[in-house]
Amino acid sequence: MIRQLIPSSVCLNCRGCCRFREENSVWLPCLTDEEALGFADRPGIPAVSVSPDKRIQPVPHPDGEGFICAFLDFKQNSCRIYPLRPFECRLYPFLINLRAKKVLLTVDLNCPYVREHLQEAAFKEYTAELAAYLNQPAQLKMLRNNPQLIQAYEQVAEIVELKLPPH
Predict the structure, then answer these.
(1) Which of 7, 31, 118, 119 is deepest in the core (most CB within 10 A)?
(2) What's the CA gap between 155 and 167, in Å, rounded?
């Protein structure tokens, strides 16, 4: 289980995540194969919410400014499926990133909380805890089996390389 770093009160007051400039943004959360199957079986989650490449499909922003996650309650600035949110959403502001054939744990520098706390001891302790969790054999296998979770993100800080096992 991934412990949340950012207090929910901070997230609920920010209007950064779950919003996208483009309809096919790299920032759209991807689902693991297991999550995609689970979403297909869940009542109340329309099939059109997940694309064939296992990304959550965005919907037009109510103010006409790009797109938002289909599960974002725009007025409340909260997630409609928070207890069921995908691995990538649980991981955020951390991301699994591909750089020069290396798979890295990175952190999104666009997150205001990250920018403010990146150099603090508690942040560094959390990142070490997260890196240790992700470098466990079961997590590495899950990442290897779900390559859609490994993207090439920009504006991120590298934390640690993940040692994915060969196929």
Answers:
(1) 31
(2) 29
Asked if 153 and 106 count as a contact pair (C-beta separation under 8 A), the reply is: yes
Q: DSSP string covering 28-97, please? A: SPBPPHHHHHHHHH-TT--GGGB-TTSBBPEEE-TTSSSEEETTEETTTTEETTGGG--HHHHHTTEEEE
The encoded tokens of residue 28 equal: 């759209």
Q: In terms of residues, how long is the chain?
A: 167
Tell me the per-residue pLDDT of 111-163, one tens digit each, with 9 for 90 and over: 999 999 999 999 999 999 999 999 999 999 999 999 999 999 989 999 999 98
Instruction: Read off the tokens for 93.
Output: 């502001």
Q: What is the pTM of this model?
A: 0.90
Sign (positive or negative) of CA dihedral 135, 139, 140, 143: negative
CB-CB contact of 115 with 6 (8 Å): no
